[in-house]
Every structure is written in structure tokens, then in C-alpha cells.
Design a protein that fits this description.
Elements lengths: L10 E5 L10 H9 L2 E4 L5 H4 L7 E4 L2 E2 L2 E2 L3 H13 L4 E5 L9 H10 L4 E4 L4 H9 L11 E6 L11 H4 L4 E6 L5 H10 L7 E6 L7 E6 L3 H8 L5 E5 L6 H4 L11
Parallel strand pairs: 1-6, 1-7, 2-3, 2-6, 8-9
Antiparallel strand pairs: 4-5, 9-12, 10-11, 10-12
Bound molecules: S-adenosyl-L-homocysteine (SAH).
Length: 258
């Protein structure tokens, strides 16, 4: 099955992983090398775009914060149109397409329009960042559960299940949370976690620009602001953050100082 070459008239919804091109799946690399058209997001890194077949058409469907280049509705229909023109389309998304990626919405439209599709999972930011920064998502001594949530602010607020998140023995990973960091930390304390509960924020994980700031629910917002972090960033809250100083490896690599 995985040896099947890319078919015309089909849309491949492909996860690009968190940034490091070595974290692409074999299937993703193969499809990038074969596609006629690539429709890609802002989160897809340059070294990954370098793997696209020379001469393939590239359509940027980027979503920077507050600046939706192409409305989601139009992206959905663009994919349908390109496939109906008989093209082999790769829809490339950062991380995993079914994790905060609106991949579900795009595939629903394809299915509704009878367009054949395939979905290729990618390494989601939480998994990539955890590995490269040295914060295990679960650990027998610290966390038996892990929750992924979006910290995206809607009308300046965040509608999350705070009592469910403010629990010990679990790791909470917050996507899209940079602008809501102070709110997240305050709410978790308000709902019962101690102010000295460990928390970290990681900028551009798995890329040469990866930076990790660790602190506590009380200190992290100030530390993050002082660090002038650049998107994308991921917030990780939980006791396993305390392991980071021991388990960190990627940010010490010699090539980073070149
Ligand atoms: N589908 C993606 C998530 C898209 S939502 C995935 O599975 O990873 C976008 C959010 O993902 C960003 O706001 C950020 O919180 C997170 N993110 C994506 N790539 C990241 C990276 N390299 N480092 C840190 N956070 C990242």
C-alpha cells in the first residue's frame, strides 16, 4: 500500500511534522517528490519545501495569527477543484493534520464532493517538542495522562475545562497559547495547582531556532515575555518539565553555535 505512487485526481492530506525535515514520514517524502500541486501552510518549514518536486505548482494557504491568507472555506473548495482537474494534490500541514489542523474539515469537503483522498499522519508538535527539548509527556513517577488543548483566544478569553486541566499527575500541552500564556497560568492556579507548579514554553521546536524557557505557573509568563519568543510556541505544564535540565540534548548540539 505505502509503495503506491501518487495518483492523479487524488488529494493527499499530509502531516509535515514539527519542522525538522528528518521527521517527515517516508510516505510524506514520497508524496512531496511526486505531487503536481502543493497547497501548504505557514507552519511548513523551508527545508521541507525543498523536497517538493521541481516544477510542481505551490500554493500558499498560510495562516498567520489574525491573517488568514485564504479563508478555510476557499481552501476546501480549492482542493476539490485541483483534484477534479486531474492533478495529484498534496495538502501539507504542519505537525499532524488531524491535530488542531482543520484536516477533518478539509477531508469532509473532499468526501462530500466524491474526491478520493488519503491522510498521512505527521509527528505532532507535542511529540516533536517533547523529544527535542527533553520533557517526557508521560512518566511513571510524574504523569499518567497527557492532554492536548488549544489556547487560542476567542474574544480575548479561553473556554477550557479548567478543573479538568488543573490536575496533578498529568501533563497539559497547550497549542496556540503564546498570547494566552498569562491567562492559562492564572487559571490553572485559580483552579488548584500550586503557583510553583512546573511549566515550560518552547519556541520553534525541532528547528535550529528551538529555544526552551522553563519556570513555574507563577514565573513563566514574565520569563517568556523577557525572552521575546517567536511563534510557533508550545506550552507544557506538569512535573515532567523538571526533567528538562537532565534530558535536554538538542539545544546543546555544537552546530547550533556556528
Ligand atoms: N497540526 C499541528 C498543530 C497546528 S496548530 C500539529 O500537529 O503540530 C499550530 C500550533 O502548533 C502553534 O501555535 C504551536 O502551538 C504548535 N506548533 C506547531 N509547530 C511547532 C513547533 N515546531 N514548535 C512549537 N510549537 C509548534
Amino acid at each position: 500500500m505505502s509503495n503506491t505512487s501518487a495518483q492523479p485526481g487524488t488529494v493527499y492530506l499530509v502531516g509535515a511534522g514539527p519542522g525538522d525535515p528528518d521527521l517527515l514520514t517516508l510516505r510524506a517524502a514520497q508524496l512531496l517528490a511526486e505531487a503536481d500541486v502543493l497547497v501548504y501552510d505557514a507552519l511548513v518549514s523551508e527545508p521541507i519545501l525543498d523536497r517538493v518536486k521541481p516544477g510542481a505548482e505551490r500554493i500558499y494557504a498560510g495562516k498567520e495569527r489574525g491573517n488568514h491568507t485564504i479563508p478555510q472555506e476557499d481552501i476546501n473548495h480549492l482542493l476539490v477543484r485541483l483534484a477534479k482537474e486531474g492533478k495529484c494534490v498534496v495538502r501539507l500541514k504542519g505537525g499532524d493534520p488531524y491535530t488542531f489542523g482543520r484536516g477533518g474539515e478539509e477531508v469532509e469537503t473532499l468526501a462530500a464532493n466524491g474526491v478520493p483522498f488519503e491522510v498521512v499522519p505527521g509527528i505532532t508538535a507535542a511529540a516533536g517538542v517533547a523529544a527535542y527539548t527533553g520533557i517526557p509527556l508521560t512518566h511513571r513517577n510524574h504523569a499518567q495522562a497527557c492532554v492536548f488543548v488549544t489556547g487560542h483566544l476567542k474574544d480575548g478569553t479561553m473556554n477550557l475545562d479548567w478543573p479538568g486541566l488543573a490536575r496533578r499527575r498529568q501533563t497539559v500541552v497547550i497549542y496556540m497559547g503564546l498570547h494566552g500564556l498569562a491567562t492559562v497560568c492564572a487559571k490553572l492556579v485559580e483552579h488548584g495547582l500550586p503557583p510553583d507548579w512546573p511549566a515550560a514554553i518552547v519556541q520553534q521546536g525541532t528547528t535550529p531556532n528551538q529555544r526552551t524557557v522553563t519556570g513555574t505557573l507563577a514565573t513563566l509568563p514574565g520569563l517568556a515575555e523577557a525572552a521575546h519568543l517567536k511563534a510557533p510556541t508550545l506550552i507544557i505544564v506538569g512535573e515532567t518539565v523538571t526533567l528538562q535540565s537532565k534530558l535536554s540534548w538538542f539545544e546543546h548540539q555544537a552546530w547550533r553555535d556556528d
